[in-house]
Design goal:
By secondary structure, this protein is α+β, with helices and mostly antiparallel strands. Helices cover about 40% and strands about 20% of the residues. Bound molecules: zinc ion.
């Protein structure tokens, strides 16, 4: 059963529980990686987002139903499958102090939270698409044309929403700019105290 995830989450659950609940709710597969480098600085200087989220967005155009006032009605059905988060289980470099380990863990959790944000953003897109009004068309060919157009618009919206999330959060480096519950700690690894 789907619920209004974004609205149902309270601030108190944001420390890890939120990410876990998203992972469970959407059966997210997690492919753990290891991020090891000769120094903290090398990790800091590496890819802006050393993690990724894979989402298979697809659609299908089911046959329309007869519309009460004549003609046909229906709409494309959108699906989100194969949700995979690839993220480090380990972030490390040689001779880490306890402080280094704490920094690495905070970075790792922030990164994971950013990836979870991609999943939640996709779910919000899906919810918006599924609440669009039905297409009503006089005949089947014009229904199919309209449905294809809706499907393409849905696909474009999915991509746009992901791009907006990425741009707003700057790949997680400015996660603080994202509204709750997706906002959070920036995915920046500070190698020295500041
Ligand atoms: Zn991202």
């Amino acid at each position: 059963m789907r619920s209004l995830l974004a609205l149902a989450v309270s601030a108190a659950t944001l420390a890890g529980g939120f990410d876990d609940s998203v992972v469970q709710r959407y059966h997210v597969r997690i492919d753990w990686t290891e991020l090891r480098a000769p120094s903290c600085e090398q990790i800091e200087a590496s890819a802006p987002e050393p993690a990724r989220t894979g989402l298979d967005f697809s659609y299908e155009i089911p046959p329309p139903r007869p519309h009460a006032g004549g003609g046909f009605e229906g709409r494309p059905v959108f699906r989100l499958e194969q949700v995979v988060i690839e993220a480090p289980r380990v972030v490390s470099w040689p001779n880490m102090s306890a402080t280094d380990r704490a920094r690495a863990e905070a970075f790792r959790h922030a990164l994971f939270h950013h990836e979870v944000g991609h999943v939640v953003t996709a779910e919000e897109t899906m919810r918006a698409l599924q609440s669009e009004p039905l297409i009503v068309a006089p005949d089947i060919p014009s229904y199919v044309d309209a449905a294809k157009e809706d499907a393409r618009a849905g696909e474009a919206r999915f991509k746009h929403d992901q791009d907006v999330y990425e741009a707003l959060s700057d790949h997680g480096r400015a996660q603080r700019r994202v509204p709750p519950p997706l906002g959070g700690r920036d995915t920046i690894l500070f190698c020295v105290d500041r």
